[in-house]
Every structure is written in C-alpha cells, then in structure tokens.
Design a protein that fits this description.
The complex is a heterodimer of chains A (319) and B (466). With 319 residues, chain A is mostly helical. Helix content of chain A is 75%, strand content 1%. In chain A, strands 1-2 form a two-stranded antiparallel sheet. The radius of gyration of chain A is 26 Å and the shape is globular. Chain B is mainly alpha-helical. Chain B folds into 3 domains: 46 residues; 159 residues, no CATH class; 230 residues, MetI-like (MetI-like fold, Orthogonal Bundle), CATH 1.10.3720. Chain B contains 19 helices and 3 strands. In chain B, strands 2-1-3 form a 3-stranded antiparallel β-sheet, with helices on both faces. The chains are: A mainly alpha (319), B mainly alpha (466). At the A-B interface, helix 2, helix 4, helix 5, helix 6 and helix 7 of A face helix 1, helix 10, helix 11, helix 12 and helix 14 of B.
Chain lengths: 319, 466
C-alpha cells in the first residue's frame, strides 16, 4: 500500500492533461476559424481587385452599373449585357424547373407509393451528382441541335440562351423538388386529415391545404435554386456563347434584347472565358473578372439570405 | 344581444341527384387528370436524365470511317504473326519499339527519345556519348530525367507514326446498330458529290469499323492533339492528384471544425457566427472559390505553390497543389456540415458514459464519439470528393493547362483534369472531339458511380451499429 503513495503526484498528471487538452481545443478552434478566413479572403480579394478596377481611368463606377455595352477592347465596361445573359438564363431555367420540380415534389410527397418513390427518388439524386460540365456537353450536343431543328437554324443561333437556360433548368429540378418535398412533408398529417374529414378530394387537400401550408419552404427552395442558376458556370459557358449581348436601349428592339434564341454571355461565362486565356496580373482584364465576381457574389449572397429570411419570417411552427 | 342563427342554405344550394353525381365525377376526373400531370412532370425529370445518359453513350461508341496509312494488320503480319489472332495491342514492348525503329527516320526517333526515353538501361536512337553530352549541357531535354515510356505511350507512338489513322467521319451508336449501310452510303455520297472535302483520299481507302471511343487504350493513353489517338491518362492522374490534396486538406480541417462546433463550442455569438458563415459558404458559387484560389494560392502563395521554396522550378503557381487547396476550400463546408450531422446522430448517453468514467472531453470525443460517427463522416467525405472531382470552373480559374501531355509527377506539377478535358473537347468544333468528350464524360460518370456506390455501401454496412 505504501508503494502507491510514491507514484507521481496526481496533481501534475492532471495538469499535463489539461495542457494537451487546451492545445487540441485551440487547434480545433483554428479549424473552425478557417471558414471565417475563407470568407474574409473572398471579400478582401474580390474587393481589392474590384477597387483597382474602378480606379482605372478607363472605368467609371457609374458606367459599370448603368452601361449596356461591355467591350473591354473599346473601353466600354457596362455590366448590363452580362447581367442580361445571366437573367435570361435564370428566368428560362426557373420556367423549366419550378413547374416540373414542384409537381414532382407534390407527387412524391402526397401521391407516390413507397415503390414509386423508391424508383424516382434515387433517379433525381443521380441527376444531382452529374458534373455540370457533362450537362454543358449535353446542352451543346443534344439541346442546341434539337432547338435548331424545331425553330429553324436561321432563327436559333448555334450559341443561344434558350439551350443553356433549359439545361440549367434540368440541372436545378432536383434542387427545387427535394427542397419543396421537405417543406411538403413537414406539414403535419392532422391538417390533411381535417381536410379529408370535410370531404375534400386528394387534389384539393394537396393544392389548397398542403401547398399553402408549405409555401414558405417552397419559396425558400425556389430562391436557393435561383441562386444556384445564377452561379452556374459550365453549361452557360459552353452553350450560350463567348460574347456578351451588347445593346442600346431605345435603338435595339426589345425582341432582340430579350430574345432567347440569340447568344448572350453570362457573368460566370465571361469570367471563365477571360481566365482561360493566359491572363497576366494587374491588367484591366484580370481586375474586371474580380469586379464581376464581386457582383455575382453579392447577388448570390443576397438570394441566399433572402431565402433564409423567408424561412425565418413565414415559417409556421406545427406542434 | 341575440345570437343570430346561421343562415341555412336553401335546398338549391346543395346539388342533388343527377347533378350531385355529375359534380362528384367531375371532381374525381379532375383529380385523376392533375395526378397524371404530376406524374408526368416527375417522368419528365427522369426522362431528362435518361436522355442525357443516352446522348453520352450514343456518342461514345459507333461506326467510324477511317483511313489508315498502314493497316494495323500489316504491322502485325510484318512481325510474322497471324493478324486474325494477334491484335496490335497484344504486341510486346520490344516488338512495338522494333516497329517504330523500322518505320521512322533516325531524326524523328532521336527527337522522341529526347522527349522521353524508351528503356531505362539502353538507348534506341541516340548513342550513349551524344546522350551523355546533351544531358550534361545547359538545357538538358526532358528525356534525361523522366521515367521511360510506358507500353501505352509506345503503342500511341506506333499509332501516331506508323498506322496514322484519320477518322474522317463518325456515326452515333444507335444508327450504327440499326442502319449501318446508311453511314457508308452517306460517306460515298460525299466522295461523289463533293470530292474536295477529302482531297487526299479515295473512297476505296476508307474503312468502316466499329470504334469504342471509351476503351482501355483511351483510358491509358496520354493526352494528344490528334483525336484518333488521344487518351485521358494525363487527365485521370491529374484528377487523382487533385483529390489526394483536396482530401488531405478538407478532411482533417473539416472534421476538426465539426468536432469543435458540435462538442466544444459554447453557444455564444462568435460560435454561432462561425456556423452561419459555414452555411453561407456552402451557397457560394464554385467559380468564386476559383477566383479566391487564383488570387491567394496562385498569386500570393506563389513561392509555395510553384514549389520554389522546395527548389522546384516552375514559371508560376498554377500547379496541382494550388488547385487542390482551392477544391479543398470549396468542399470544406460540405465536409463540415455532413460531419456535424454525423456527430449529432451520436447518442448523448455515450458522451455521458465517457465523462462518467472520468475521461476528459477530448478523450470522450476521441475514443467514444468519433469512432461511432466515423461511417457518417466517411459517407459525407466521399460525397464531397465526388463533387470535387466534377468541378470545372475553379480549375479553369486557377489555370489548369488544357493541352499537356506529360503526367503530373507531384504536387508541384502542371496538370490537367478530367472535367477540363471534357470542357476543352466540347468547345472544339470537330466531330471527333465530340466523341472524345462523350467518352471522357462516360469515364467520369463511371468514376462517380463507383464513389457513390462506395458511399451507399458504407452507409448500409454501418448504419445499424449505433
């Protein structure tokens, strides 16, 4: 028994353990803080290079946010042609994805038997896993030729916004459907049962009770999908062309400005095409992609926070 | 105050009899129709998936119209084999080198050997003395240090220099299967009506043969600017290097952050800021990460990413390590969030039991919580890796080289990656590059399928243990 008391004193052992524990805690904290460093890095780098861009004598901030011609060689830096490309593609994509995604979600959540779900759910998940560059290949080799067959090769250009928009739409269908389905299945069964009890049919229960109850979740999902479409790059680069659709308000007809059949580079497409050449630092081209990147970042950030606010403000808590 | 009796609807308000039946059947019919529409929408989504896969497979295989300078059979026959039994792919390394020696001039041979030598221990076209001289000169050619050529590389040389195939047209899989004659007629038609399209050939030289654009040769051959002999080995190796670096950065950091947030972080403002920030980062478009990578890893950290501080010579920081770290940052939020989910699923009783035995927080986490959460963390990691493999835009931003024919040899090499190849080939106008892009896409999808299957198996194997 006396031997035990000659062992190393208990206190120092505990102390050692605390020190290493502290070290581990600190390194774990550093891991967590790397995410903050990433955000700071993004904001700092985008901001710094954008500032250099706007300090360039060729560029004026006012022209950037109001100009409708993007022609770096001629010293015209108006962002609107690129935003137009992004917006057209996003609108077409949402026109494809919202009806199909939402209807799929209602079917999966309200109608489908477990067997049908077991077939369709994984298929949608496979769609999520396919790299976007493969979708880009699909847009160029399948969608564009088909559209040119349907509408005529003289109407639809080889590079066009419609093909890119439809394929981006296909790409975000799973996103819309899975987020909407989550929202729909979060609606408690008691609501459905109450409606059935009043004599409503399945369709009436789905469309007039469940969908309105889940509307905030569905809206949030659609906004997320929109943000995804805005940031989508490869499909847009490959299918919608390598030149921005410059226009002059009042001179070009709206039928040209808003035409889905014409080419129209998006913001992401411009960044990729400009960066894929040999880009040297501290040139106006190099700085310009950061200014556009910052615009893109702010747009997606805005959409993502909008989605979160929709959820926070309008979510109904069910017991 | 008198309570007013609710207005009772009059008899006419409610339909009855025939009218009632009609009303009911109309509602039912409408219900059925809308249900069909919903199902149709779902089927459309799946149809889109099927069409996509169909397009890729359709372009990956099919008939081709080829003109060879020398027929592969002649090459085999010249070595004394029966062409019916032995294919050119079956020839040994020495035989292939022999074929090359017989077919190309010494000058060309010397150039090829200077690019990359054939044998470790002997020279084929150069003499030892000249070789020693040029290797000790100021600018030694790449062949002095590089490893000798592989079987696939020599086979590609034989195709490039001896067989010299020229695919003048290709046909898709489905028409090739059901109407192969139409293709031959089409080509013959071209030779008759517009002979200027292929001025070097006559129709008799054209051979119609099946070609699997995705084949073992395609997977093992290095990149090349000629579509007939180009392969994706360089790109696959590049992608593997990228994944290795991405994993070794994102997994330790991501799991560490998740452990911190789930097990240690007190619910204060700062920690909830970290959490919100991670959720925000998950929604940032990948191209923005590419720009971050370009500005930080390629430019600011250039001495590190170009390998200069390790004594490696590179023009710039557009290397595997810069791209790998960029992809690491990109996948970090995904790894953190999925690891957090896995940690949340660990029952609290395990932690309490650990603490109750006198273990410290970290000891409990390390030996109780993490082992239980491991399958979930692994599944999330595999899915994050699957996402990283398919990313293209960030790689273009950090400067993956599009035409590079030498394999990456380490973290500080120039590289290309599978999605980059697909992007390049898709943006080229010639038909044959379309086939290559399809074949490379199919290879990428198969790779992803294997990874995802791995994740599913892991999930199913371990999910019941808790």
């Amino acid at each position: 028994m006396t031997e035990t008391s000659t062992r190393t004193p208990r206190r120092s052992l505990g102390g050692q353990r605390r020190v290493s524990e502290k070290l581990i805690l600190v390194s774990l904290f550093v891991c967590g803080a790397i995410s903050i460093a990433t955000t700071i890095g993004i904001i700092y780098e985008l901001g710094k290079e954008s500032l250099l861009f706007f300090q360039d004598p060729q560029v004026s901030f006012w022209e950037y946010i109001t100009g409708t011609i993007w022609q770096p060689q001629a010293g015209s830096f108006g962002i609107w042609p690129l935003i137009l490309g992004t917006m057209l593609i996003t609108v077409i994509a949402l026109t494809v994805a919202i009806p199909i995604g939402l209807a799929s979600a209602i079917y999966l959540s309200e109608y489908a038997s477990p067997r049908v779900r077991g077939f369709f759910k994984p298929a949608l998940e496979v769609l999520v896993g396919i790299p976007t560059v493969v979708f880009g290949f699909f847009a160029v080799t399948f969608m564009t030729p088909i559209l040119r067959d349907i509408f005529g090769a003289d109407v639809v250009g080889f590079f066009n916004v419609l093909s890119a928009g439809i394929v981006v739409g296909i790409l975000i269908i799973p996103l819309v459907s899975s987020l909407s389905e989550d929202a729909l299945s979060a609606v408690p069964d008691s609501l459905r049962q109450a409606a059935y009890g009043l004599g409503a049919s399945k369709l009436e229960v789905s469309l007039r009770v469940v969908v309105p109850a889940a509307l905030s979740g569905i809206a949030a999902g659609i906004v997320i999908a929109m943000s995804r479409a805005v940031g989508e790059t490869m499909v847009v680069t490959l299918a919608s062309g390598a030149a921005p659709r410059n226009f002059v308000l009042g001179q070009d007809p709206w039928s040209y400005i808003l035409s889905p059949f014409e080419f129209g580079q998006a913001m992401t497409g411009y960044i990729v095409i400009t960066a894929s050449g040999d880009l040297s630092y501290n040139t106006i081209d190099y700085n310009s992609i950061f200014a556009i990147g910052l615009t893109l970042f702010l747009m997606t950030l805005g959409l993502n926070s909008l989605s979160r606010r929709i959820v926070d403000r309008y979510r109904q808590e069910y017991e | 105050m008198s309570i007013e009796a609710p207005l009772r609807p009059t008899e006419e308000f409610y339909p009855s009899g025939d009218e009632y039946d009609k009303f009911l059947s109309r509602r039912k019919r409408r219900g059925r129709i809308v249900q069909m529409i919903f199902l149709l929408a779902l089927a459309t989504a799946v149809l889109a998936l099927i069409t996509l896969l169909y397009t890729i497979i359709n372009d990956s295989f099919g008939l081709t119209a080829v003109v060879n300078e020398t027929e592969p059979e002649e090459v085999v026959a010249s070595l004394g084999y029966d062409p019916a039994e032995v294919a050119i792919e079956d020839l040994s390394f020495d035989e292939l080198v022999g074929v090359l020696q017989g077919a190309i001039s010494n000058n060309v041979g010397r150039r090829l050997e200077r690019e990359q030598r054939f044998y470790e221990d002997r020279l084929v076209f150069e003499t030892e003395s000249v070789w020693a001289e040029i290797c000790s000169s100021g600018e030694p050619p790449a062949g002095c240090d590089a490893a000798p050529r592989s079987q696939a590389s020599v086979l590609q040389l034989v195709y490039e220099r001896v067989v010299v195939p020229d695919v003048i047209a290709s046909y898709e899989l489905v028409p090739s299967l059901f109407a192969p004659e139409a293709f031959e007629e089409e080509i013959e038609e071209i030779f008759i009506t517009s002979p200027d399209r292929f001025p070097d050939y006559t129709f008799d030289q054209v051979q119609f043969e099946w070609r699997a654009w995705l084949s073992w040769t395609f997977v093992t051959a290095p990149a090349n600017s000629k579509p007939e002999i180009a392969g994706i080995r360089t790109a696959i190796l590049g992608s593997m290097w990228l994944v290795a670096i991405t994993i070794s950065f994102a997994v330790p950091v991501g799991v560490g952050a998740a452990v911190y947030l789930e097990e240690f972080a007190r619910p204060n403002r700062f920690n909830s800021f970290i959490q919100t920030n991670i959720n925000n980062l998950a929604g940032v478009p990948s191209i923005i990460y590419g720009m971050l990578g370009l500005a930080v890893f390629v430019r600011i950290f250039e001495p590190f990413t170009s390998g200069a501080i390790f004594g490696i010579e590179n023009d710039n920081g557009r290397t595997v390590v810069a791209a790998g770290l960029t992809l690491g940052l990109l996948t970090l939020p995904v790894v953190i969030i999925s690891s957090q989910e896995a940690l949340k699923a660990v029952p609290n009783s395990l932690r309490q039991a650990g603490m109750g035995l006198g273990a410290t927080r970290w000891q409990t986490v390390r030996s109780q919580v993490l082992p239980v959460a491991l399958p979930g963390i692994l599944t999330g990691t595999i899915l994050a890796v699957a996402r990283a493999i398919g990313e293209t835009a960030p790689l273009i931003l950090v400067g993956a080289a599009s035409f590079i024919t030498s394999d990456p040899t380490g973290p500080f090499s120039k590289f290309t990656a599978l999605p980059i190849q697909i992007f390049q080939w898709t943006s080229l106008p010639q038909e044959e590059f379309r086939n290559l892009a399809a074949a490379a896409s199919l290879a990428l999808l198969i790779l992803l399928l294997v990874l995802n299957a791995g994740a599913v198996i892991l999930r199913n194997k371990y999910s019941r243990r808790i």
